[in-house]
Design a protein that fits this description.
Helix content is 42%, strand content 6%. The protein has 311 residues and is mainly alpha-helical.
Length: 311
Amino acid sequence: MPQGTKRTIAGLILLALAGARPLAAQPNPLWTEGKVKNYLPHMTWPEVEELSKKTDMVIIPVGSLEQHGHQLPIGTDSLNGIERAKLIAQRADVLVAPILFPGNSPYHLEFPGTITLSLETIQRVYVEAAQSLLKQGFRRFLILNSHGGNGAVSRFIADRINHETAGIAVELGEAAGPFRERRSDPEPREFDRHGGVGETASSLYLTPSLVDLEAAVAAKLTMPDHLEAMIPAIEAGDATALRVFLAEGLKAKETGKHTSAREMSTTGVWSERDPKEATLEQGKSEAEAFVDAAVKFIERWNELRPLSTDR
């Protein structure tokens, strides 16, 4: 091809490119979230400032990153805690401020994906976060524990806030308890705890797209004989048996108690039931009962201690 023809063709191509309209940019295809009212990560600072004129309350979820069997994600506790807090914040003026995803879960470390932090680290981070919010006008803190292993540290976080700062804190699960509808004595039921039917049902309602119910596998449980002997009493509703059982059950392998998740369960699930039994209806009922009780507690706290105009 003659050199002049090549230059002509190249020039035409450049002209065509120069005149072409660029394709419209497309947003991140993985982004599916919509903005949620009163949810700190979604808010601008003017929105937080405006909310602080209506309330000085903050819900701080305390969760974990730990295995939850074959059917539930590693982030189950943190995600479900955050979702419950969001639901509460749609019905009450309260800020939702997630701080950490990991919690204290050393007894799940033999399963891939679990991340655990020391109790000292957890309480320090949450107290420092509360101190930040105190400087911005928030004074009342509802610590929402969504992982059983964080029970003691969640209460300690509230205690430190109360004793060491100008803030006022409660553990929300305990505070909401008296506002839940009283039920008649429960029927004896099978042992069902970590990653079992109850927790799977909650996730079917709170984080449905992350549940793979078809992947659920019934666990084979192996416990020290003296703990296994307590199961019938626990299933019959014996509160003392449950308290003693949990004091020893699900503890890190290094303690020598032989009760880490891997030592007791083939799947990581701590339940005699098949998680496939879980239903959306069960999860919805449980979540709504908790949210209703939490909102009632918040309303009562506001009656007892109205928002101060001198802050």
